[in-house]
Amino acid sequence: MELGVFSVFVGASVLVFLGGVEVGFSQSEAYARNYISWADLKVDEPKVGLNSRNEFVNGSRVIVVDKNGGGDSLTVQGAVDMVPEQNTDRVKIYILPGIYREKVLVPISKPYISFIGNQNQTSDTVITWNNKASDKDVTGYELGTYRTASVAIEADYFCATGITFENSVVAVPGGYGMQAVALRVAGDKAMFYRVKVLGTQDTLLDETGSHYFYRSHIQGSVDFIFGRSKSLYQYLIGKSLGSFQSSVSYCHFDDIITPSGWSDWNHPERQKTVEFGEYHCRGRGAAERRGRVPWLKSFSFEEIRPFLDTKFIYGEQWLRL
């Protein structure tokens, strides 16, 4: 289903899906290290020498990943490992097309990293793994949801474009230990532009920090977007593979959504701290309101307005788009 605005309030945490509001930052502003700009999401492909390790192109360090051996690293994690600890400058990891079957961690000690694929062919560059929560580690303990992520971003000022993040586990809704995260984002000030995040249960763990998802695609069946972050989702396609989704939304609902629309997961006390609401929703799943849960809130424009641009995520402090 194509989503407009989608918000989840958990304590002080809010997620917002937004449609129809353009970003207003000037591209003419000087590049600053503590901002993410369009330049951080681009590489000058003709200038990238595929056999020249750690080449600088237009002032930025570029590390090339090619599974066929033509770059600086065969793996994405190998490229991340090449970035120095406590990095202070933008490093662009340019990932050539291919399926990269690996778990990737961008640790908190390595900020200012970009993952760059082909913005026009997002499906060409895939990072995929297949852990689920009931899998066991080398000590015999179950991984749990948190450790299943195919790609985990713990560093600040991360950005990505033209990449598919995937967890290939096919989860049966309600099955034990089937949580399988494709992407976990725990760093602050992260941007994702033209990416895909694919899974079934617990696809995107938008854990903590302020994040911006723009013109992207997130797919799953149960809890496929969850977490405690403060995030803005603009021009997003969120595709539910099942019949249930819980969120606060301003969006297009397909009729795959159950009439009740929302759930407190059999914990009525959560109704006191979590606010579910809708504003100008569209689609066959939004037309029938009589079956909605009685504690659903309908927002007025004045109530929804604070969430309708990048000021909500303090974008003026870290975005230059």
UniProtKB/TrEMBL annotation:
Identification of the protein by name: Pectinesterase
One of the protein's GO biological processes: pectin catabolic process
Catalysis performed (reactions): [(1->4)-alpha-D-galacturonosyl methyl ester](n) + n H2O = [(1->4)-alpha-D-galacturonosyl](n) + n methanol + n H(+)
Enzyme Commission number(s) of this protein: 3.1.1.11
Membrane-crossing residue ranges in chain numbering: none
Sequence ranges assigned to domain Pectinesterase catalytic in this UniProt record: 63-234, 251-315
Active site per UniProt: 223
Pathway the protein takes part in: Glycan metabolism; pectin degradation; 2-dehydro-3-deoxy-D-gluconate from pectin: step 1/5
